[in-house]
């Protein structure tokens, strides 16, 4: 059979680190290559996590750079591209940092060999993450009940594919309930996602077995394998499971996720709140919440000052506020007060700090590799 690569991108965050450990423990037969895309502007805690992870995995994590550092006159990759973009800071509407510092190095590293890319999107998240545009790269999601990417599901569960899917289901002795779901056409009242979930709930391993055999009729990388252990996967891992994997392995939770106390004045009383970071990535990531900027100000004041130096007239990390404005004591107090009130309202609904991290997560650059 054709040689197929297995790769996993380490963002420096909790999910990709936990996935690396999970695959090593559950599927040691997979020869996984690990890599990370270094922007040169990560927190020290990120680099420390990668060092501990290398020790646990017993493998090196390849550090990908978006530029040859010998030609950047001592600049970090981020600063190199910032100069090329004329000082124009990245934002949610102009995420050049994600493309230049994360996606391009990833695509270049993949080359043209058939490759399976393992992505750590959890079972309690409802998103796809980054899917490579290369036909030779196929994404797999081991933490979800549905390990397949949206393009694969669409290909094999479309209405014109019902007969082919059903023939395989019958040959594998599917029960009547499973076959009834297969026969049900996609419609406004029963969309693609609902059909996939119904089949997975009916018989996860059978569904995966059928998809695997259908892939053998395509050019998808998994179709080139004699066998694939994850078709027997029925695990659904959520945020509590991720933290448990990290702690049990000895790698530990990245320090910036751990809650730290702050004081907030509420109606004349001093209350104790907690804050932390919700994502990995550059210390000045524009996807940060206001309370995370306050966390950076108080826990890493030198890094906050460095982030502030990037802001020039007309260019700031946030649309409605500069870091100079945010760092003012009255503004810091207001942000803490708002955060305390909001998080305690959530706590009354049994939300813990891990749930709050999950709520805060968005489509940041780390989500390319999670």
What does it look like?
The chain is α/β, with parallel strands linked by helices and 370 residues long. It has three domains: 173 residues, HUPs (Rossmann fold, 3-Layer(aba) Sandwich), CATH 3.40.50.620; 72 residues, no CATH class; 112 residues, no CATH class. 44% of the residues lie in helices and 10% in strands. The chain has 15 helices and seven strands. The strands form two sheets. It has a five-stranded parallel sheet, with helices on both faces. Helix 1 packs parallel to helix 2, helix 1 crosses helix 10 and helix 11 packs across helix 12. The longest helix has 19 residues. It is globular and about 70 Å long. The two termini are 30 Å apart. 38% of the residues are buried. The C terminus is likely disordered.
List its salient traits.
Rossmann fold; 3 domains; 5-stranded parallel beta sheet; two-stranded antiparallel ribbon; disordered C terminus
CATH topology of the largest domain: Rossmann fold
CATH evolutionary superfamily of the largest domain: HUPs
In CATH's first tier, which class of the largest domain applies? Answer: Alpha Beta
Count the helices. How many? 15
CATH architecture of the largest domain: 3-Layer(aba) Sandwich
Percent of residues in helices: 40-55%
Q: Tell me how many strands there are.
A: 7
Estimate the strand proportion. Answer: 5-15%
- The outline comes out as globular
First CA to last CA: what distance?
30 Å
Q: Give the SSE string.
A: EHEHEHHEEHHHHHHEEHHHHH
Major sheet summary line = 5 strands, parallel
Number of domains: 3
**Average pLDDT, all residues:** 90
Contiguous runs where pLDDT drops below 50 for at least 5 residues: 366-370
């Amino acid at each position: 059979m054709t040689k197929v690569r297995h790769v996993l991108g380490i963002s420096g965050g909790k999910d990709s680190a936990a996935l690396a450990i999970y695959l090593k423990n559950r599927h040691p037969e997979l020869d996984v290559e690990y890599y990370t895309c270094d922007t040169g502007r990560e927190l020290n805690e990120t680099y420390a996590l990668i060092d501990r992870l290398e020790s646990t995995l017993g493998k090196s994590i390849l550090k990908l750079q978006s530029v040859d550092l010998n030609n950047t006159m001592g600049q970090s990759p981020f600063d190199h591209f910032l100069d090329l973009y004329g000082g124009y800071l990245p934002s949610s509407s102009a995420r050049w940092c994600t493309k230049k510092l994360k996606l391009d190095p990833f695509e270049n590293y993949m080359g043209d060999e058939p490759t399976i890319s393992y992505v750590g999107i959890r079972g309690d998240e409802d998103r796809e993450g980054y899917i490579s545009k290369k036909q030779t790269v196929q994404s797999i999601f081991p933490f979800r009940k549905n390990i397949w990417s949206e393009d694969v599901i669409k290909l094999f569960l479309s209405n014109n594919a019902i007969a082919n899917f059903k023939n395989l289901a019958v040959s594998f002795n599917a029960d009547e309930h499973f076959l009834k779901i297969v026969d049900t056409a996609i419609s406004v009242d029963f969309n693609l996602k609902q059909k996939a979930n119904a089949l997975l709930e009916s018989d996860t391993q059978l569904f995966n077995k059928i998809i695997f055999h259908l892939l053998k009729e395509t050019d998808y990388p998994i179709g080139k394998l004699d066998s694939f252990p994850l078709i027997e996967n029925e695990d659904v891992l959520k945020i509590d499971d991720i933290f448990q994997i990290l702690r049990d392995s000895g790698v530990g939770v990245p320090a910036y996720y751990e809650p730290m106390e702050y004081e907030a004045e509420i109606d004349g009383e001093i209350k104790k709140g907690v804050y932390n970071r919700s994502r990995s990535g550059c210390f000045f990531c524009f996807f940060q919440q206001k309370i995370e900027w306050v966390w950076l100000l108080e826990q890493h004041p030198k890094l906050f000052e460095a982030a502030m130096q990037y802001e020039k007239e007309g260019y700031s990390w946030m649309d409605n506020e500069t870091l100079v404005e945010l760092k003012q004591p009255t503004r810091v107090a207001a942000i803490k007060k708002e955060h305390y009130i909001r998080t305690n309202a959530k706590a009354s609904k049994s939300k813990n700090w891990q749930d709050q991290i999950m709520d805060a997560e968005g489509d940041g650059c780390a989500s390319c590799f999670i």
